[in-house]
Specification:
Elements: E1 11-19, H1 25-39, E2 42-48, E3 51-58, H2 60-72, E4 79-85, E5 93-97, H3 110-113, E6 116-118, H4 120-127, E7 132-136, H5 140-143, E8 146-148, H6 162-173, E9 177-181, H7 186-197, E10 203-206, H8 209-216, E11 224-226, E12 228-229, E13 236-237, E14 247-248, E15 255-256, H9 258-261, H10 281-298
Parallel strand pairs: 2-5, 6-10, 7-9, 9-10
Antiparallel strand pairs: 1-3, 1-4, 2-3, 8-11, 12-13, 14-15
Helix pairs in contact: 1-2
């Protein structure tokens, strides 16, 4: 009789955030670090005086234990999204103390100033309205993997650049309904707060972000094109939060689809069409040595 093959238990991946005053961020960090190490979590949590943010993975029991701990610690309104990965999506577990849980670089008050939430089921109708300006608040490499049809791409390389983009385009947005979205919702808490602080009154954002939309909205009804970049080993996810088909360029971090991997500039672990001109021959040689080590470990 052939042995029964038991498929590996997939990792539960939890993306979470909540803006809430944290009296002692260092103490919370220490408790989270101990809990995560004891329960075998991997991923990163960011703790600041303004709240908590991060994506972690582990067994279902470990994720439930973290969620229970956060609730007892006062995070009773977490924006949380679970998905699954067949492979360990992070190498280690880290808890970082930072000034902001998502870095805008300007003081805003998401708990009192954030724009109006729009549920995933209502998003299609909103963005189909020709009087609505839809803004993707993510970085350009994230947008390259996929976005909503008709969305404005600010072409930023970090969220810190968003205020400058807003300053440059404030007149174009004046008097408009502005609808914003990001991966899980956290950046829009701050971007919509910034717009309201600058005098915009009709500002909306997608509750739960792209991940909630891809989970809830049937693919046949979707206005999403491509895949959604995620900050873990899966690289991208698609509808139903199924693992996507992109690979990451280990030189520049861009997600690469089939066409980009077929491009002459693509060399695994070394370069892609987005970065082939940005690195020197010496750097490429070092990347090739690194890739050979990776290949040797896997053989």
């Amino acid at each position: 009789m052939s042995p029964v093959v038991v498929p590996p238990t997939p990792f539960t991946v939890l993306a979470l955030y909540q803006f809430r005053r944290v009296p002692d961020p260092a103490a919370l960090r220490a408790e989270l670090l101990a809990l995560g190490q004891a329960s075998g979590l991997c991923g990163t949590l960011i703790v600041a005086a303004e709240g908590i943010n991060g994506t972690v993975a582990g067994s279902r029991a470990a994720i439930d234990g973290l969620s229970d701990f956060l609730r007892t610690a006062g995070f009773d309104r977490l924006e949380a999204k679970t998905s699954h990965s067949n492979e360990r999506p992070f190498k280690r577990f880290k808890v970082r103390l930072k000034a902001e849980i998502v870095t805008l670089g300007l003081p805003v008050e998401p708990t009192s100033q954030a724009g109006q939430y729009v549920e995933a089921g209502d998003w299609n109708a909103l963005i189909a309205d020709p009087d609505v300006v839809v803004v993707d608040t993510r970085n350009r490499y994230e947008v390259s993997a996929g976005t909503f049809e008709g969305a404005v791409n600010p072409e930023i390389d970090s969220f810190r650049e968003f205020p400058d983009w807003l300053d440059a385009h404030a007149e174009q947005l004046a008097g408009k309904r502005v609808a914003m979205f990001c991966t899980g919702g956290i950046r829009c808490e701050k971007s919509t707060s910034l717009l309201r602080e600058r005098g915009f009154t009709d500002v909306l954002h997608l509750r739960g972000g792209i991940l909630k939309y891809l989970e809830d909205v049937p693919e046949e009804d979707s206005r999403w094109h491509g895949e959604c970049f995620v900050f873990d080993g899966r690289v991208t996810v698609g509808h139903g939060l199924r693992e996507g088909g992109a690979l990451m360029c280990h030189s520049c971090g861009w997600p690469l689809g089939v066409d980009e991997r077929a491009h002459p500039a693509y060399e695994e672990g070394v370069s892609c069409p987005n970065c082939v001109e940005a690195t020197t021959d010496a750097q490429k040689a070092a990347f090739r040595d690194r890739q050979r080590m990776y290949d040797a470990r896997g053989s």
